[in-house]
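Quick check before the chapter quiz. The format below is the same one you will see on the exam, so make sure you can read both the input and the output lines.
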Amino acid sequence: MELFEAVWAYAVPFIVVITVIVFFHELGHYLFARFNGVRVEVFSIGFGRELFGWTDSHGTRWKVALLPLGGYVKMFGQSDVGPDGDGSEAWTEQQKAEAFPNKTVMQRFWVVLGGPLANFILAIVLFAGVFAFVGKSETLPEASVVLEDSAAERAGIQAGDMIVAIDGQTIERFDDLQYLISTRPGVPLRVEILRDGETQMLDVVPDAVIEVDDLGNEREVGRLGISTTSVIYERVPIGEALWGGVEETLRWVTRIFDFLGQVITGNQSSQDLAGPLGIAQMSGTVAEYGVANLVMFMAILSVNLGLINLFPIPMLDGGHLLFYIIEAVRGRPLSERAQEYGFMVGIGLVGALFLFVTFNDLTRFGLVDYLARLVS
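Here is the expected output.
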């Protein structure tokens, strides 16, 4: 019974979230491919052995596979020998017209870009849906309460002060303030506040505190020591909701870049990077707070997938786009050997990242410590 409850609590929300995000990513590739006259042979959700599927009137095999950790769209000609004679002379004229390698560099560029674009569009729609049908929470960055002996009090922040900006970065909502402060423990910050209609500049050093998550893992975060009661919560018209979805998507793009920058500079622990197990655990936890929260989480993950896929790493969509840009500038593609080396490097980087985030996940769940005790 406990095993069934654990599967229901974590695996089911995870599979729902991943399936929706991956489906729309691959649907973006599919739609752009069809628009540009490319024949799609396979549309797969998951990897490995096919569980079930069907073939449509265009000859595309739509299938769901055993491992729900991704998906792919296979276009005609992708795994065949190129169009310049090494086997492609057997293609008919129609097949040549439908082959992905025979398309112009800009057509191939848009087909590849379609996946990440679909993820951003999905995120906008999901954010907008929650704002329009559930409501949009606007928590103002006001210091309604200032804790005694906190970083805020020591810096001179008073109850009723509105936080306007931090280090020149505009603060519009309280969660923007929370995120920025939490990722900068012990880092001196220049804070602009609004008090009695006048702006003031204060120097603040967030307290570094140890936070323990639901699994008992510890991490250092920044704390300012304020809370707010200034909350505006209401449904918004669909047009405003769509624009709010765009703004929320851009806000999360900025946060992701900021987080990665903090990791690279050492101000944020790389142990906070999560893999499939971590996402499954977060999916189950978020699902406990209702469908709206799960939809918001799905939108955030969709932004992550779209953005990460644009990184110029071979094996990812961004790596293909980089090759196409080089091809457009040079007037001819890179040599097959150069592309092979690039993809080998890409496989190594993606594989190393997967192993690293999986190790982080196993550490969070205590499995690494458990194994270490077994062999020590």
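If your answer matched, good. The longest strand covers residues 40-55.
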